[in-house]
Amino acid sequence: MDTTIAAGRLQALANPARLRIYEILSQADENGLTVGSIQELVGMNASTLSHHLKTLVLAGLVTQTRAATSLVCRPNHAAMDGLFSYLVRECRPVPKRQAA
Description:
Blueprint: H1 3-14, H2 16-27, E1 33-34, H3 35-42, H4 46-58, E2 62-67, E3 70-75, H5 77-90
Antiparallel strand pairs: 1-3, 2-3
């Protein structure tokens, strides 16, 4: 994973409202949730929710599909797994070398 992608995903999740939205989507079943359902669960106005969802979609953390007149959102678990892998691989201390 590119450092820029990782930074964008971390920045998207740094906002408490977006982290909560991702958390709610992750706990939903594989059918996802409509934007209206998410709005009911988080209790924010439509334009604010739309802004947060757009940020999560642009970061690659959420996917959206159209189902008739509804927009269905799902978490992109592969993107989150990639972020975790990146953090484990790139952001951990280097083991100290022992003297010979």
